Amino acid sequence: MTDELGIMASPLVIIYSRGSRVDIDEVVNLVKKHGVERIVVGMPRSMDGSLGKEALRVQKFIELLSKSSPVPVVYWDERLSTVAAEREMNFGGATPSQKRQWLDAVAASIVLQAYMDSLRDPQHD
Asked: Which of 54, 66, 113, 118 could form a disulfide with 9 if both were Cys (CB 3.0 to 4.6 A apart)?
């Protein structure tokens, strides 16, 4: 989630997958509760930019989410976001159990931050 000005991204909650329909309902409820304007989903591209099995699964999820969402759903390249999250957590002195618990949430905030930064970048198409 970002702050009201769309400047800083930070984790809101961790959604543990319980199946597409339940996950989508949970995301839509969060959208409504927090007045979200757009959903950004990390796309797990391969290092060469291609779409592997996981990316195709995410594409399918995005299609389903888009049909239920009251706001636009966009995807953003998430390559190396987990590596960046691990680096940030190490720098912050996170314990191994904190890393296990929060790694995906921190990586998601990095993906969202990159997307938000791109909107302010005059070079962004």
From this structure: 113
DSSP 36: -
Residue count of the chain, please give it.
Answer: 125
Tally DSSP H helices, then E strands, for the chain. Answer: 4, 2
Name the superfamily (CATH) of residues 20-120.
YqgF/RNase H-like domain (3.30.420.140)
Token duo for residue 21: 């329909």
pLDDT average, residue stretch 34-58: 90
Alpha-carbon distance of 58 to 9, in angstroms, equals: 21
pLDDT above 60: residue 124: no
Both tokens assigned to 93: 């002195």
Which residue intervals of 1-125 are DSSP H helices?
A: 20-34, 53-68, 81-91, 96-120
pLDDT greater than 70 at residue 4: yes
Give the other-Cβ count within 10 Å of 27's Cβ.
19
12, 83, 106, 111 from 3: Cα distances, Å: 11, 24, 15, 15
The rounded percent of the chain whose pLDDT value lies above 90 is 50
Domain locations along the chain: 20-120
